[in-house]
Design goal:
The chain has one domain. The chain is 45% helix and 0% strand. The longest helix is centred in the middle third of the chain and has 21 residues. It is globular. It starts with 18 loop residues before the first helix and ends in a 27-residue tail after the last helix. The relative contact order is 0.17.
Length: 181
Amino acid sequence: MNTAPPNQRPQPNQTCAPMHTTLQRQLPTQTQTPLPTHVHLANLLQLLLRNALATSLALPRPCTINHCNHLRAHLLADPFFDPTHLPHEIPSPLIRPSKILFSDLVVLMARVLRVLMRQQQQQGNVYVLGAALTEEEEEEERAERGRVRWEALCQPFFERGREGGGNPFSDGGVVDEGCVL
């Protein structure tokens, strides 16, 4: 743990482009075709992990809650996060905790990312090596999608009604340490 006063702590390397800036240069963000949902989720996941890493090193967080909420709004536009879309996929009523632990959110986001990427593959938007799925594998994929979707919809972070702002992680207030960019 870095115990140096905040003004004497090492600052992030400013010559290195931030990850989200690098992604913006590499991804076709100004096209007429919207980015797939899994790209928004991957971008949001790397943002959260960068903030967590900075916090663990006692450095200022590189991205603000507002930036997180902006990416989150793009993500939540997908019907996957709409509880009224394909309600038969959701195995049981939603249970809403007031908050989610960061580690649980990261694992859940990775599972959602896998489901969304698999969905893109099944729609033929991504070239996949290997044989097509068997009926049993397809059924298991549908069941996994339902389980993951239910877990995501139970969390405040993925609740569409909260996408305007505030703390996306809990029902509490916002504590934003700012942005070093």
